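Open question from group meeting: does this chain pack into something compact, or does most of it stay loose? Before anyone orders reagents, we agreed to write out a predicted structure and look at it together. Recording both the input and the output here so the notebook holds the full record.
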Amino acid sequence: MGLLLGSQFNLSKNLVLDWWIVGPHLGVGSGGLEGSKATPFTNFEKESLQATLDSFELPLVESNTVVEGQKATIDFSGPWGGVRAGLSLGYRF
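Structure tokens returned:
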């Protein structure tokens, strides 16, 4: 969801300039990452990797990490947002 404000200028008969002044946008997303290795993790590797993954802190994002066997997974979800602005040059046929 978002809103975009801007203006359009005719530079010549066939050339147009679009100016996006401000465009806030926001939403909710989710995803995951998975990594694996050829051999199973040792207990030390499992504990160390789990501690490292648990130490990551992303603001406003919920995450769940699991290290088992030969793989590690991170599932996350949360809101996102930003502001857009820019210029676009168009040619009218």
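Observations to bring back to the group:
Residues 5-91 form one domain.
The beta strands are 5-10, 15-36, 62-68, 71-91.
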